[in-house]
TrEMBL record:
Residues 38-57 are annotated as: Disordered. Gene3D superfamilies: Periplasmic binding protein-like II. PANTHER family: ARABINOSE-BINDING PROTEIN-RELATED, POLYGALACTURONAN_RHAMNOGALACTURONAN-BINDING PROTEIN YTCQ. The lineage of its organism: Bacteria, Bacillati, Bacillota, Bacilli, Bacillales. It comes from Paenibacillus macquariensis. This is Aldouronate transport system substrate-binding protein. InterPro entries: Bact_solute-bd_prot1, SBP. Keywords: Cell membrane, Lipoprotein, Membrane, Palmitate, Signal.
Length: 552
């Protein structure tokens, strides 16, 4: 850690001095000999020019260096390759940028644990694609200010200003985005994933419509209707786990479906008065736990929910063990219906409204994302030996040419231009062996630091288009706490400790309450313990951060 802090201080000092090669050389030899050798401008060629002139500012860059990137490989791409570099996309990216990349892909289900091990080992890669916000269990504890002060990642203000003209242009053109991707003190910390405004809703509850039709049941909207439906799935369809969701890395992927029916959340949220709250200690959260404890005992909610990862859920959905879940448009409805179209042509999944307690209520919350997506965004670490090269490589994604590659893949192979618009080829959309989602995963980058193109649409079914409309009918915009609030460095240290302890305890008790190992009478003691851990202080910090964000 000390090595990283020295390197970070040394690098930032060099970057802000200017472009004089003589002065830079002097700084490197005299002032920065203790660091790890972050060589931004200091790398000299035989002609005496600095690194920027050596590498160039047009693509492909003039370099023989290899950089390293830590990022989860898309679950669909794993079907074909174990390394992004081996995919058609990875090869095309290397050719276009002139940069070879060594990718390290953590296991998707263990990314949090493997990220923590990487941080603890002090062996960071040049760039890391991860959630640095500190907002969720699977993000950097304490957020970006702490990650910078810890000497883990670099502040990017001068880097973006000098070496990322494409991203700089996008931030200047979109003030709301610019507001989202920096800290309250004005520090940029990632190359962001920028969502298209039409793609902000993509997850929600879904159900086997063919089963509902067989049973002559309506699409459920209330908790009572859901209970009736799940009982019918169990008793008349033989479903061993009528309702199931993934539960990995401390993330209960039901998100706020069902929980929101009780006007609370599974994490921090904003109440009707604009105040930050922590849902898992609300009195009404106990009502949700009581419901799912009952459903678990009655076999309506998956008995193995705590062990259900993506592969396990796939198996349960495709073998008829499960008739309802909470998942995504492409990775859920699209992928599962494609997999079953020949085996069971009647198989039909549709999106359902977020459940409420009473008919006609607007769901309290639901999935609604912001244009900045923190999870698939990349930071440059203090271990990067050539931060300029990493920045220029990342900035390619925000260029017009790079955007086409990351969004649509390789022209002539994965897409063609028709009437001025990109259209997927039959290799992608009508592949005899693989789904559209599988094919786009190796010819493009489904998620990552670039701007999603509004013309990109992976919906291949009317059920997907309809699901978006249904899932959009919530009050999520009012109650969702932005994931990119940035506490101060001091607040972050305090917040990181509190959130980590609270999250671990909350998840432990969550499972115990639902499976019946802890009596519901212990709920008040559970709340008291979380308060003892400092949750009120965490709420206070987030409230202050929210108010500062609103004033940016």
């Amino acid at each position: 850690m000390e090595r990283r802090l020295l390197a970070n201080e040394c690098f930032l000092r060099r970057l802000k001095v200017g472009v004089s090669a003589v002065l830079l050389t002097s700084l490197i030899l005299s002032g920065c000999s203790q660091g790890n050798g972050n060589k931004l401008e200091g790398k000299q060629g035989d002609n005496g020019k600095g690194a920027s002139e050596e590498i160039g500012s047009t693509y492909p860059l003039n370099t023989t260096e290899t950089i390293s990137s830590w990022e989860v490989l898309d679950s669909n791409a794993v079907t074909f390759h174990a390394d992004l570099a081996d995919t058609p996309f990875g090869k095309a990216l290397a050719k276009a940028t002139g940069v070879n990349v060594k990718y390290i892909h953590p296991n998707e289900q263990q990314s949090k644990e493997q990220f923590n091990l990487m941080i603890a080992s002090d062996e960071l890669l040049d760039t890391v694609e991860y959630d640095w916000t500190g907002h969720s269990a699977g993000s950097y504890p304490g957020g970006p200010e702490k990650a910078i002060s810890d000497g883990v990642i670099l502040e990017l203000n001068d880097i973006i200003d000098q070496y990322a003209p494409n991203l700089k242009k996008k931030l200047a053109a979109n003030k709301e985005l610019d507001k989202m991707v920096k800290t309250d003190s004005g520090k940029y910390y990632v190359f962001p994933m920028i969502r298209n405004s039409s793609g902000l809703v993509f997850r929600g509850p879904m159900i086997r419509k063919d089963w509902l039709d067989d049973l002559k049941l309506p699409v459920p909207t209330t908790i009572a209707e859901w209970e009736t439906t799940l009982k019918a799935f169990k008793d008349q369809k033989g479903a061993k786990a009528p309702l199931s969701v993934t539960y990995t890395g401390g993330n209960f992927e039901i998100r706020d479906a069902f929980i929101g029916a009780y006007h609370t959340s599974n994490s921090f949220y904003i109440d009707d008065e604009g105040k930050v709250k922590y849902g898992p200690i609300d009195p009404q959260y106990k009502d949700f736990l009581t419901l799912f404890r009952k459903w678990f005992a009655e076999g309506l909610f998956d008995k193995d929910f705590a062990l259900t990862d993506t592969k396990a859920l796939d198996n349960k959905i495709l073998t008829g063990q499960t008739g309802a879940t909470v998942h995504q448009l492409s990775g859920g409805i699209g992928r599962w219906m494609d997999a079953m179209k020949e085996q069971d042509p009647k198989f039909n999944l549709v999106g359902t409204p977020y459940p409420t307690l009473n008919n006609g209520e607007v769901p309290f919350t639901g999935q609604l994302s912001f244009i900045y997506n923190p999870g698939p965004s990349k930071a440059i670490t203090t271990s990067a030996k050539n931060p300029e090269l990493v920045a220029r490589w990342l900035d390619y994604a925000y260029s017009d040419e790079g955007a086409m590659l990351l969004n649509f893949g390789i022209e002539g192979e994965s897409y063609v231009m028709e009437n001025g618009a990109p259209v997927y080829t039959d290799l992608i959309k009508n592949n005899e062996k693989y789904s559209l989602q599988q094919m786009v995963s190796i010819y493009s980058k489904p998620n990552g630091p670039y701007e999603a193109d509004g013309r990109r649409n992976w919906n291949t079914l009317p059920q997907q288009d309809e699901a978006v409309k249904v899932w959009s009918q919530t009050d999520a915009k009012k109650h969702t706490l932005p994931a990119f609030l940035t506490p101060t460095a001091e607040e972050s240290k305090e917040l990181g400790k509190i959130v980590m302890e609270v999250s671990n305890y909350k998840e432990e008790m969550f499972v115990k309450f639902i499976v019946g190992k802890e009596p519901m009478e212990s709920y008040d003691q559970y709340v008291a313990q979380i308060k003892k851990m400092g949750i009120d202080r965490a709420i206070e910090i987030y409230q202050s951060a929210l108010e500062r964000y609103n004033k940016r």
